[in-house]
Write a structure and sequence with these properties.
The protein is mainly β. The protein folds into 2 domains: about 10-165, no CATH class; about 185-265, Immunoglobulin-like (Sandwich), CATH 2.60.40. It has no helices and 25 strands. The strands form 7 sheets. Strands 10, 11, 12, 13, 14 and 18 form a 6-stranded antiparallel beta sheet that branches. The protein has a 4-stranded antiparallel beta sheet with strand order 4-5-6-7, with no helix packed on it. The protein has a 4-stranded antiparallel beta sheet with strand order 22-21-24-25, with no helix packed on it. β5 (about 35-40) and β6 form a beta hairpin. The protein is elongated.
Length: about 270
Amino acid sequence: MLFNQGYIHFGTSIIDVGDRASPVVVDWNNDGKKDLLSGNDLGYVKLFLNSGTNSSPVFNSSTNLMSGGNPIQYYRTSPEVYDLNQDGKKDLLVGDSYGYFYFYANVGSDQNPVFDSVDTLTINTIPPTYLWVNQAAKFDLADWDEDGDMDIISGEWNAYVNLFINTTPIIAVDNDLSEYPSEFSLEQNYPNPFNPATTISYTILKPSRVNISIYDITGQLVTILVNEFQNPGTYSVKWNSEGWNSGVYLYRLTAGEFTTAKKCIIVK
C-alpha cells in the first residue's frame, strides 16, 4: 500500500469512490484486519474488505451497504460505525448533505452486520424533533460528558461545530418507509383561476426547511406562505389574494435543494 498526494494506492490502482469521499476505518467482519467504509457524493455507503494484513492492506473490490434489499443511499453520505443501542453488535449511523442523521440497527451479527430498517435520530423534546445541523452532517462520536455513552459532534457547511449530548441509550423515531412519499411534488392550486382564495398542496420527501413564496409576473416577491422546517408528508396551504390585482402569479416551493414553481391566475 502506498500513499501519494492524498490518494491510497494499491499497486497501480487508486481507491476512488467519487467526489466527497468520507472514509472510516473499521474491522467490519471481526477478522482482526482493518476494513474501509466510505460515503460519497452519490450517497452510497461503500465497504472495502481487507484481504491483506493491517500492515499491508489489500482491497480488491467494494460493495454497497444494503438495508431491506436496497442500497443505503442519501445525498453526500458520511458514515460512522458504533454499537449505539448497546446490544453487542456494530450499528451504522449516516449523516447527509441536508444535515440529518440516520440510524441503522444491526439485526445480523457483529461479524456479519445486516440492516433492514432505518430510524431518524431525534432531539429529546416534546414533541420530538429531528436531530439536524445546517447542511453537510459530517460527524464523529465521542463520550464528551464522560457518562459512558457516545455523544455526537458534527460540523456543518457554515463552519459551526454542534454538540449533541446522548441522554438515553438511543433516541430514534421508527420510520416505516412504505408510509413516506417517494418524491417531492408541487400540485396545481385549486381552484384556478380563483378569487379571492386558493389552496396549494405539496409533498415533502424528507425532513426539510420548506419555503413557499408568491411572486408576480415580473418576479417581485408578493408574500411568503410557508417558511419553516417540516417532516415528510403531504401538506396544503391557503392563499387569500384579497388586495392583489388580477393577473398571473407564480408560486414556488423550495425544500432543501429541491425547487419548483407553477403559475396561478387571479380573476376579479
